[in-house]
Amino acid sequence: MALVLADRVQETTTVVGTGTATLAGASTGYQSFAAIGDGNSTYYTITDNTNWEVGIGTYTASGTTLSRTTVISSSNSGSLVSFPAGTKNVFVTYPAARSIPTNRAIVMSIVFGY
Question: pTM to 2 decimals?
């Protein structure tokens, strides 16, 4: 399917370990991962406010889950985080490692070595 981004998507999960996160519904003031669409991938962050992981995950409507397919960065040296018990926040994000600078001076420096 497609890589989809949506604004103000945040849910909680009680995932333990490195497995797929079962989503517990939209946080107050946010929309659920259903905005991504069944079978689509998105950039996500999951954190328990100590450990964190940024990656690409796939949303599945049946069971309302987010697979943690590809880790881009994490508090575990870039590997999947084995989360302890407790509630975590999981939300759609746009990773810095995937961004393109729009400042002309930065672009000129990167492209032309100025």
Answer: 0.87
